[in-house]
Amino acid sequence: MSAPETFDAFVPSTISDLLSRANFKARYIPLSSLRSLDLENKFKPSYDLMRKVDSDAVLNHCLRCYYFSLLILHSGFPSNTPGVRQITRDELFKRVFLTSVLHDVALSHHESVLNHPAHGTSVELQGGIMAYEHLLEKYPSPSLSSSDVGDVAQGIMLHSTHFSNGTSSAANILITISAFFDLSGYGAWSHDVLDNVLHRDSVREIEAAFPRGNIAGEFVHDITEILEEKPNCLLCHIPSSFLEKVKAVKNLADSH
């Protein structure tokens, strides 16, 4: 089943409002149908950067986020809403890939991250800055437009932030949903609210292809360390129960 040719470029920033706007119905889509080797090859420098600076567990987390986002786009994500600007499928898939793959680029102890001038900021802000620099260097116009680069960088900077109102770009809300889902499961917001959004059999396939490894242990350790070092960082605003949810998830397909 193919995704729509266009999607709403801007959607509600709150999950409840997003779910009420769209007619989500979780659909089983094989991983083989979600993959786009042309897209992955075109933006291989971004994948290579993540392999250089991050662990296999973090890289797999980023790749799962990409495929979860595509799965959401195949399952009823808002499209052709009257009065809402549209973004083409190809344009959105490109932004989703880059945002997903690069969103944890600064969650690393690699010297290029530790010595970066933005290391004194929150990890999401540094990640957005590093991604911005990387995208401008590796994909000069017309490969990526200023809107592409800005959307990817902003999505990375804000992906851990929950808003109570307002509007997000499609790529931005997708990285928020997929990242929190990958770490804390189907109960990331409230009990099984994502069951109509992400088909459990597809999730099982994606997780098998990109194993979790010790992602829970790494994230709990890294986030705890970040909160001790920077008590005012953006991560200090995540729900207090978040780390316990992360520890509890053994596999996503069976989570609640």
UniProtKB/TrEMBL annotation:
This is HD domain-containing protein. It comes from Dendrothele bispora (strain CBS 962.96).
